[in-house]
């Protein structure tokens, strides 16, 4: 029980820090949106609207209230699921975001699963025999994957796989109501485009971690006691090598979420990235404000989950009393 206390304290501290960080980020986002030139009432009604009509709409939207009062109202609305009304679509922002989350979250999860499925075995076997054939392949893959951005990989996949071979659609999303297979097929190429740059980074980190852990004394001791190379690898090397991999995965989440904005537009997916791009083009500030905060919540929440996992798997934290 004493061994679990450091991990519990770490998790509790991270949770407090997460709440404080989200509050600070929400204030920054709201302040930036409030400072952007333009009148939301004019965006909704048009520049030809009568002054008294504009004034009535500003009052209805609370735009005539002091800054801090409007910020407090926005936070109160967030707590109740009321994100405001879209200036462009005159639709609750919560409904717009809810529809798009059904695309973006599965896409991001699919991409993370693919990146781990590629990076972990490739990095482990490359690190097991540095300079070998697998290591050469892993090094080449890492260099190419890091150098080429995800949206460019998406364009290549459309040209080389979707148009030439016809194995996958070039874009669009049929909706989950069309069935799991059509929906996941539509997300496959975008997920690959997002996964390759992430897998390239994780492959390099995994390879380096495996090489470093394999040189530790406890691995030599296990080998001296008769453990085979593969048993020492999977029982002693890989569990300890996962610690930096998990840390890097948390750092890459923000990059992955940023990449969804471009990749969703390349594949014309109706996700959060496309919604943010459209809202920016239409100056729908309330949508941009809430989407930006949601991206921050997703990134910080996943980082918290990764850091919690780090506290659980790190043997140094388990051993601390």
UniProtKB/TrEMBL annotation:
Transmembrane segments: 12-36, 107-126, 146-168, 180-202, 237-263, 291-313
Subcellular location: Cell membrane
Assigned GO CC terms: plasma membrane
Domain ABC transmembrane type-1: 101-306
One Pfam family it belongs to: BPD_transp_1
Transmembrane helix among keywords: yes
Topology of the protein relative to the lipid bilayer: Multi-pass membrane protein
Top-level taxon of the source organism: Bacteria
Predominant location category: membrane
Keyword Ligase: no
PROSITE patterns hit by this protein: ABC_TM1
Keywords from the UniProt entry: Cell membrane, Membrane, Transmembrane, Transmembrane helix, Transport
InterPro entries: BPD_transp_1_N (IPR045621), MetI-like (IPR000515), MetI-like_sf (IPR035906)
A GO term, aspect molecular function: dipeptide transmembrane transporter activity
Family stated for the protein in its record: Belongs to the binding-protein-dependent transport system permease family.
Protein known as: Dipeptide transport system permease protein DppB
UniProt source species: Martelella mediterranea DSM 17316
Taxon lineage: Bacteria, Pseudomonadati, Pseudomonadota, Alphaproteobacteria, Hyphomicrobiales
Gene assigned in the entry: dppB_4
